[in-house]
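Justification of resources, computational component.

The compute hours requested in this renewal are based largely on the per-chain cost of generating structure records like the one below. Each record pairs the submitted sequence with a full structure-token output. That output is archived, and it is also reused by downstream analysis tasks.
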Amino acid sequence: MKIVTICGAGIGSSGILKVNAERVLRKLDIDAEVVAADIASVKTVAADAQVILTSAEFVETIGRTFADVIVIENYFDTNELTEKLEAALG
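The structure output for this chain reads:
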């Protein structure tokens, strides 16, 4: 499984979200590759992704995709990440 975290530059917010998603996935015992990327490369990087994690501001730019796009309000809230990933993957 591939999960892509998206932000504007692909470094800051998506990096934080990547680390926290990996922590949550370990707790849930779910094996997944998590990749941080910028919004400009989303079509390429997320072409084979099952899940895209991002903020509400990028949803429209992501556009049509086969991946589940999950909006994360607080990138530091592992409870929010846990709930939303369990709902999408469970």
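Residues 12-27 form the longest helix (16 residues). The domain at 2-74 is CATH 3.40.50.2300 (Rossmann fold).
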